[in-house]
Amino acid sequence: MSGGGGYGEQQKTSWPELVGSPGHYAHDMIHKDRPDVQIPVLVVGTKVPPGFDDKRVRLFVHQDYNLKVALTPVVG
Fold first, then answer.
1. Measured between alpha carbons, how far is 28 from 5 in angstroms, rounded to an integer?
2. SS3 of residue 73 by DSSP
3. Where is this region: Disordered (predicted)?
4. Which end of the chain is more exposed for a tag (fewer CB within 10 A), N or C?
5. What predicted TM-score, i.e. pTM, was given to this entire model?
């Protein structure tokens, strides 16, 4: 999976390398790879409605650890 979006390229759909990174940095990196998605930042444990959205990446952060990314961000 690569960033970009040229002909024949797959769009990136997960960012495991961002786990443990500051939330603002992760947000910027996801936006750089996928400017077409919404990126809500949520504290771990926040209840979210079920359902898949191919234009969303939920970014879950630890409230007690300086808002570092807690879970692998994925499209959905």
1. 17
2. coil
3. 1-29
4. N
5. 0.85
How many CB atoms sit inside 10 A of residue 17's CB? 12
Structure tokens at 1: 């999976």
Tens of pLDDT, residues 12-50 = 999 999 999 999 999 999 999 999 999 999 999 999 999
Taking the C-alpha atoms of residue 48 and residue 28, their distance in angstroms, rounded to an integer, is 22
Residues with Cβ within 8 Å of residue 16, at least 6 apart in sequence: 72
Do 20 and 71 form a contact (C-beta atoms < 8 A)?
no
From the list 3, 13, 1, the residue with the least C-alpha distance to 56 is 13
Tokens of 52: 């898949």
In the three-class reduction of DSSP (H, G, I as helix; E, B as strand; rest coil), residue 41 is classed as strand
